[in-house]
Amino acid sequence: MAAKRATIKDIAREAGVSPATVSRALSDHSSISKATRLKIAEIARQLNYRPNLQAKSLRTHATKTIALILPEINSFFVPEMMYGINTAAAELGFSVMMFQSDNQLAREKELLWYATELSADGILLSLSEETESLEHVQQLRDSGTPLLLIDKTGGTTDIPSLTIDGAAAAADAVRHLLDKGHRQIGGVFGHPALSITQNRRSGYLRALDAAGLSETDCPTLEVSQILEISTNLHRFLNDYPGLTALFLMSDELMVHTHHELSALGIRIPEQLSLIAISDGIAPYYLHPNITHLHHSGYGMGYEAARMLITHITQRPTPANPAPLQGAILPTKRCELHSVRQI
């Protein structure tokens, strides 16, 4: 027969105090002396007391849990972001429920509903590839659920989000190539419908325009699926044989492009220079190490969880109505060995 679970009343009986005193002591309430708090904590340890979180959530309407909804889990940025989210949540006394939408809008909507049914105190959401309208997200926010968009954010300014300035990072990458003497640059981008692609492509073109160049001089390749890179890159390089450098908008494109160039016998940077936007891990596993604009997946995840949980625990009141605010994280250029001076 399973041992009976210790309760606050059991601790109160052992300590010779009221259950209310035990409850306040276990919550580290300042009205209880330090000596009494330590005594009660020791008795709780001896009795192997575990708080009933379900009962507590019913009383406080808080579960100390946030939901994380991701479109997919790849091998690069997302695992580091998840690590950062879990680290910050644990430091702040919260747990994380993680879900994957498989880049499907219907699944994303279902998971948002499910997270609220599970009484998540807040939600971190990275949008699916199918998500265009954010009406379902706005409706959830209007119902009072704290929500922060992260990474893939749809480019909205109406819903708080945490992202990097992808346009600025892409522009910085192009300027670096220009400073190295490159004037025939190719840009390799992901799915054209994604806001992250559109954002980084706009920065790429903006930097070219400032240098008196156009997309005619510096063409772009867009791939809807990462596995398309093999066939499409080969064709792209044949169509534009004069290219001296490529800008790659993501880790996935960087790794697959590097692989294809190696298979084609194209030497980096002697024949073709490479620069990418990256979370800063994969570039060091490639030879030569790839010059990149670094954005930390861990840092983004940590900051996203910290922002959301801080908002939850300091929930706005009529006296303090401040809403959850978004933010843009900076990137840093890391010059390694994949860009040559010409």
Automatic annotation (TrEMBL):
Q: Report which superkingdom the organism of origin falls in.
A: Bacteria
Recorded protein name is Transcriptional regulator, LacI family
Query: Which part of the chain is the HTH lacI-type domain?
Result: 6-60
Species per Swiss-Prot/TrEMBL record: Cyclonatronum proteinivorum
Q: Does the keyword DNA-binding apply?
A: yes
Q: Which residues form a coiled coil?
A: none
PANTHER family found in the cross-reference section: HTH-TYPE TRANSCRIPTIONAL REGULATOR GALS, LACI-RELATED TRANSCRIPTIONAL REPRESSOR
Lineage of the organism: Bacteria, Pseudomonadati, Balneolota, Balneolia, Balneolales
Going by the UniProt record, its keywords in alphabetical order are: DNA-binding, Transcription, Transcription regulation
Query: GO terms for molecular function, please?
Result: DNA-binding transcription factor activity; transcription cis-regulatory region binding
Any keyword Iron-sulfur?
no
